Structure formats: C-alpha cells, structure tokens
C-alpha cells in the first residue's frame, strides 16, 4: 500500500469526519451522547432502529475519531471523544442561519418591490 503524503492524510481525515456527520441519525446520536457515556442497549431503543443499524452508525462515528468506546462484559459503551465536535456542528448551524437570513432578506426585498 502506498503511503499517503501529509496533505492527503489530512484530507482523508476531514472527509471521514464530514462523512460521519453527514447522516441525520448520527447527528442525533451525538446529541444523545452529549450528556455522557451510554450503552448501546440504551441508545438503540431511543432511535427505534435495529441493534445492527445503530451499531453501524456508532462504528462510523468511532472510526472517524468522534466517539470513544469501552467494553464491559457483553455491553459496549460509547462517549464523545472530544466536545470540540459540537463547536464544529455549531459552526455549521451558524453557516446555515447566515444563508437562511440572507434568503429571507431577499424574499422580503422581492415582496416589497412587488407591493405585497
């Protein structure tokens, strides 16, 4: 396997993080884990998905470095690895709000120009 240069590695890490965050269920899982560590047995019922589906989502978040996990007997517990991930989500929300706000201003200007 050919080794990636540093820029390719950085790009690959970014893609993995954004890919992990690109699913609504995974974003909801992050919010659910915001208050602390949870067992898969606690996470699965909340999302009304099969255990295998929830585990797949959790593993994607884990592989992206967003979650940590630990094993206790037959149970697996997940937690947020670094709360900075929520700053990233907040920045995305701010980006979206800025775009929506600009669209509202344009819509209002259009209404005014039509006399509505």
Question: Which stretches are low in confidence, meaning pLDDT under 50 for 5 or more residues running?
Answer: none
Quickly count the helices: 5
CATH architectural group of the largest domain: Orthogonal Bundle
Task: Tell me the name of the CATH class of the largest domain.
Answer: Mainly Alpha
Elements, N to C (H/E)? HHEHHEEH
In angstroms, what is the radius of gyration? 19 Å
How would you portray this structure in words?
- By secondary structure, the chain is an alpha+beta fold.
- The chain folds into 2 domains: 1-81, Arc Repressor Mutant, subunit A; 83-116.
- The protein is 66% helix and 12% strand.
- The chain is built from 5 helices and 3 strands.
- A 3-stranded antiparallel β-sheet has the order 1-3-2.
- Strand 2 and strand 3 (75-80) form a beta hairpin.
- 9% of the residues are buried.
- The model has no long low-confidence stretch (mean pLDDT 91).
């Amino acid at each position: 396997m050919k080794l990636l240069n540093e820029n390719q590695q950085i790009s690959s890490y970014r893609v993995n993080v954004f890919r992990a965050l690109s699913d609504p269920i995974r974003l909801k899982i992050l919010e659910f884990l915001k208050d602390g560590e949870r067992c898969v047995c606690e996470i699965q019922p909340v999302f009304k998905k099969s255990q295998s589906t929830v585990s797949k989502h959790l593993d994607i978040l884990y592989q992206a470095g967003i979650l940590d996990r630990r094993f206790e007997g037959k149970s697996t517990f997940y937690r947020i690895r670094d709360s900075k991930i929520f700053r990233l989500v907040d920045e995305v929300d701010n980006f979206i709000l800025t775009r929506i706000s600009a669209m509202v201003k344009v819509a209002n200007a259009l209404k005014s120009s039509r006399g509505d």
